[in-house]
Amino acid sequence: MTITARVTIRQATPDDVDALADVLAEAFHDSAVAGWLIPDPTDRPTIYHRYFTAVLAHGLKHGHVDTVADRSAVAVWYPRLRPPPPPAPTHQASLAEATGRYGPLFALMEALFEVGHPDTPHHHLAHLAVRPVRQGRGLGTALLDHHHRRLDAQGVAAYVATTSPRRGFYQRLGYHTCPPLTLPDGPAVWRMWRPGPAGLPAAFPSTVFPPVDCFSEDPIR
C-alpha cells in the first residue's frame, strides 16, 4: 500500500472486481467509444459491467491492477516487455459471453488496438477510470504517478491508447501524442507514448508518425 499526495493506493484483489467494474462502466458510459460499441444506451450499463468484470479478471491474472482506498478509481496495466502470445481461446470466449450481440464490435476494437500497438518494450495502460462524482480530485493522476515511479526506476516506457479529446492530461505526465487510429465509422483512438527519463527510443518513428500537439490542457481527472 502506498500513500501518494494524500491518496492511498493499493493493488486490487478479486474481492474488488465487482465494485471496480461499476467504476469502469460508469466512467466510460458516455465516452465516444461506448456509443460505437453499444449504440443502445439502455444496454450499455449491463454489457459494460459484464465486459469490465472480464477485463479485471484478466488484468488480475496477467497484469497489474491498482485502486484507491474507497475503490472509486482504477488503473489496469499490462507489461509488454516482449511480444505477447496470441489471445487465448478462453479470452475470446469470455469476451463473447460478456458482450453478447455486441461481441463482434468488441472483438474488432481489440484487434485494431493490437495492430496499432508499439513493438518497443513498455507497460501498457489498458484502462484508467475514476467514478464521475470523484473526478477532478487527482485520483487518476495519483494512480499514474504511482506506477510511473516504478517504470522510471526500471527504465521502462509506458503506452496508452485513448479516445478522450482532452489529451493534455497525459501530456502533462510525460506522454507524447502520435496520429490516431480510427475505428470504422467511429471515433479516433489516440496513441500516446511516455519514454521515461532514460530517453528510450520513440515507439512511433517520426518519419512515419510525426508528433502532434495536444489540443486541450484541461484536466480530466
Low-confidence stretches at least 5 residues in length (pLDDT < 50)?
Answer: 205-221
Radius of gyration: 17 Å
Q: Which CATH class of the domain at 2-101 and 119-158? A: Alpha Beta
Helical content (DSSP H or I, runs of 4+): 25-40%
Strand/helix succession: EEHHHEEHHEHEHEE
Q: Looking at this structure, what is the CATH superfamily of the domain at 2-101 and 119-158?
A: Gcn5-related N-acetyltransferase (GNAT)
- Mean of the pLDDT scores? 85
- Supply the CATH architecture of the domain at 2-101 and 119-158: 3-Layer(aba) Sandwich
Number of strands: 8
Q: Report the β-strand fraction as a percent range.
A: 15-25%
Major β-sheet profile = 8 strands, mixed
Classify the fold: give the CATH topology of the domain at 2-101 and 119-158: Aminopeptidase
Q: If helices are DSSP runs of H or I spanning 4 or more residues, what is the number of helices? A: 7
Helix and strand composition category: alpha+beta
Q: In which order are the strands of the major sheet placed?
A: 1-2-3-4-5-6-8-7
Domain N-acetyltransferase: 7-197
Protein name: N-acetyltransferase domain-containing protein
Pfam family, one: Acetyltransf_7
GO molecular function: acyltransferase activity, transferring groups other than amino-acyl groups
